[in-house]
Predict the 3D structure of the following.
Amino acid sequence: MQIFGVTGTYSGTDVSDTTASAADVLSPKKFHLADGTLKTGTIATKTSANVTFSGATVTVPAGYYAAQVQKSVTSGTAGTPTAAKGAVSNHSVTITPKVTNTTGYITGGEKTGTAVTVTASELVSGTKTITENGTGIDVSDYASVTVNVESTKPTLNAPSIALSGKTLTITNPATNGNFVAGYKIYSGQEVSGYVTSTTVDLSKYITESGTHTVTVKAYATGFNDSAASNSETYTVAQTYAVSVTCSTWADNEEPKNVCYVKFGSAPSSATDYDFVFANNTSDSTLAYLTDKATGTTESIGDGGSWSKTYNTSDVYIWGTIYSSDARLYINNTRVPLSSCAWSAPIHREIDSISTFNLEVDVFQGSWD
């Protein structure tokens, strides 16, 4: 080594290779830089007092720790879970869990809170009443369901009808089997009668004069009435009160005179009459009158008479008349009376007459 041109040997410490800085050296230690400058280290010495925590953050400051350090953290307390039940809506309820812990370190473990119960009555309410048959009826919103549906009954099939004169014929369809108990006869919308026979005399059930629309419904126990049958038109003629008087005289003799009387419709046979009046061939003082409706025969003596009132619109008279003096009176007016058959009777319409008086005298002999 040369100094001022003089070569010699240096016995001091060579620090030219120093690379440390103040930040690398513990304070307050001294050291020389590479150029020989003396420096003081700046690394601070730290202890556990320098370690801090805030919430979940632990802060360890930079520095030199001569030994292991530790810091006690404040202990926290785990809260007991609770749950809040919200409003119930359409089978749904909201449960909100909640737990409150104190600040600090909490050790592991488990705590169980009090259970929250949601009752069925809270999820559903009210009553649903079902009155009709059906499927897909939603009852999930109701606490109870009441079923009030009438028992279902089968319905009879409609019969068919045909009308001939006053005779109504009812045909029960085979699909009704043997269940039909009877038939309701309707005039328009009104029930005129109940029958069990399939052949019906309408004059017994519909008597009001005028034109009637007739239908029939079948009925049976355990079944709904059938629909109405086809319709038929039935006409009842205007009727009038007819007072009939039959009288006899003392000169009844052979041959026998017989007078038949039928009201309403024309006779259908020789025996289709309402009454028959005949003189007695064996006793000139008597005549016989037979009332077909009652089946009784009365003897009418000399000068006697028989009376009965009918509601009718027409009168038909026929019989065997031998005497030209046999007489028929309508409203006190004599009507010619002669022999005729039931198939071609004397016919008189009774129109616009409040009271009709018919007098039949059947006798033999001269007119006094």
Q: What stands out?
A: The longest strand covers residues 210-219. Residues 250-254, 362-368 have pLDDT under 50 and may be disordered. Residues 240-361 form one domain. Residues 14 and 236 are 156 Å apart (CA to CA).
